User: Fold this.
Amino acid sequence: MNRLKVLTDNDPVLRKKAVSIPVIDGSIKKLASDMIYTMQAENGVGLAAPQVGKSIRLIVIQMPGEDPFAIINPRIIKSEGEREVVEGCLSVPGYEGVVKRSVSVVTKGLDCDGKQLRIKAGGLLAQAIEHELDHLEGVLFTDRIEDSNKLYRIENTYSGDAC
Assistant:
């Protein structure tokens, strides 16, 4: 596995809408594996392909104490509720902010074997899925901060709840 370079908020790739993956081949599986390795090395909860310079619809997530997984061509088909959460991002080092996220989401996509996934998520997992899907749309968590007083500079390079 290779540790990939995580792009920061000034990189134009992070602002592009990612394209769907038409075929799951060995290069996609390797990228997913490298992304998981990178996410773990960076102490993240999630990582989207645009964050490593690939403008394709692939995300990886790992909840604390659980196995990591990838979702190819993910989409949220249902969301419920709203809550304020503190987020950080590997692509926006040194900052955390308060954003609004859904209480729960239902997501569809494919796993690395091309099998259909349907994930019902709440809490941190729902937050991570929404955060990573934002990356696929060219949106950073800082774009969702409604009040500039809710963006904070932090001492550590990353200590947020998600992604």
Summary: The chain is about 20% helix and 30% strand. The first strand starts at residue 46 and ends at 48. Confidence is low (pLDDT under 50) at residues 157-163.
